[in-house]
Amino acid sequence: MKNNKKISVIIPTHNRSWYLRRAIQSVIDQDYKNIEIIVIDDASTDDTKEAIKPFISSNNNIIYIRNEKRLGPNHSRNIGLKKATGDYIAFLDDDDYYCDRGKLRKQINLFEKNSKLGFVGSGYYDKSINKNRIPRVRGKIDKTLLTTFSDIETSTILIKKEIIDKVGFLDERFKSEQNHDFFYRISKIAEFDYIPDIAVVKDNPPSQISTNIKNKLQGYFLFHKKHFEDIRELGAKFFILIIMKLLITSLILVIEAIIGNSLILPKLYETIRNRKYHMQ
Fold first, then answer.
1. Residues 262 and 172 in one domain
2. 134 domain-assigned
3. Are residues 253 and 205 in the same domain?
4. Which residues pair with 117 in a beta bridge?
5. Is 227 a member of any domain?
6. Residue 1 within a domain
7. Other CB atoms closer than 10 Å to residue 154's CB: what's the count?
8. In this structure, are 173 and 267 located in the same domain?
9. Are residues 19 and 154 in the same domain?
10. Closest-CA residue to 83 (of 59, 61, 102)
11. How far does the chain reach from its first CA to its final CA, in angstroms?
12. How far is CA 151 from CA 126, 180, 239, 256, in A?
């Protein structure tokens, strides 16, 4: 393989030792081998520290960092970014895992073919709705990310470190949608592409932060407030569209909270997206 640049895979974790073992093993099993794995233990109270010891003893490229108090996934990822020495950065949630041994190699190959790329994703299997998802967008996608939902999943992404140095770390004010904000900032200065293979499994364990309705609402509103000037520059038509999307999303999230079902929004989005592409 010509390209042997280092990849840093950052895995934040909290009280999910079994899932963490699976995530780490899926990275070790990659056929691209110049990888360092950075595990940020966000003050776990289970056996996370013990669970990772066998991996560390058999692999010199695993770094374990423990937060003495819980700081949250954004802060933990940023700690990992500060520690990372790779030319490329990958994020992997502790409950997700790579299901394609060639994922990172295939993504590196895309970077080699297009110098304009700043980040590369992949297809993934979403257990919450039992569906395969593909990003379906590529190239300069900043307007797309500003105005629509995204199938760019955090655990699928590989990013050039030099791009992160330009746009900055994750915004720790976000309790949800921080990935969308981060990818939007990257998309303003670099292009996006993806490998069409289903390379990641996105699991759905209980108590995920992504299913917290209050956090979702905070994330949606903060994103649109933060990038208000960019939205306004798109013109009245897009501005009205985004406001309607925000209001409808907020209503659905409130309904989800009332009936205790956190799958209405992703299922509705899946229906709308499938109809959109069926009509094209």
1. no
2. yes
3. no
4. 191
5. yes
6. no
7. 23
8. no
9. yes
10. 61
11. 39
12. 11, 10, 22, 21
The answer to the question of residue 229 being in a domain is yes
How many Å apart are CA 62 and CA 82, to the nearest integer? Answer: 15
| Cα–Cα dist 42/76, whole Å | 7
How many angstroms separate the CA atoms of 85 and 149, rounded? 32
What local confidence, expressed as pLDDT, does residue 276 receive? 46
Same domain, 188 and 250: no
Last residue of a domain, one of 172, 189, 209: 209
* pLDDT tens digits along 165-201: 999 999 999 988 899 999 999 999 999 999 999 999 9
pLDDT of residue 189: 98
Residues 196 and 84 in one domain: yes
pLDDT tens, position by position, 133-157: 999 899 999 999 988 766 799 999 9
In this structure, what are the phi and psi dihedrals at residue 187, rounded to the nearest 5 degrees? -65, -20
The domain that contains 65 carries what CATH number? 3.90.550.10
Instruction: For residue range 229-251, list pLDDT tens digits in order.
Output: 998 888 876 777 777 777 776 67
What pTM was estimated for this model as a whole? Answer: 0.86
What is the pairing mode between strands 131-133 and 97-98?
unpaired
Write down which residue in 179, 209, 239 finishes a domain: 209
How far is residue 64's CA from residue 206's CA, in Å, rounded to a whole number?
25
CB 111 within 8 A of CB 117: yes
50 membership: H or E segment, kind and range: helix 48-58
Judgement on whether residues 154 and 249 belong to the same structural domain of the protein: no
Tell me the two tokens of residue 274: 């499938």
Per the structure, the complete domain to which residue 187 belongs is given by 7-209
Residue for token pair 């692999």 = 59
39 with 77: CB under 8 angstroms? no
Domains contained in the chain, number: 2
Contact status, residue 15 vs residue 46, Cβ threshold 8 Å: yes
* Rounded (to 5) percent helix, strand, coil in the chain: 50, 20, 30
Q: H or E segment at 98?
A: strand 97-98
Measuring CA to CA, which residue among 3, 5, 54, 16 is closest to residue 208? 16
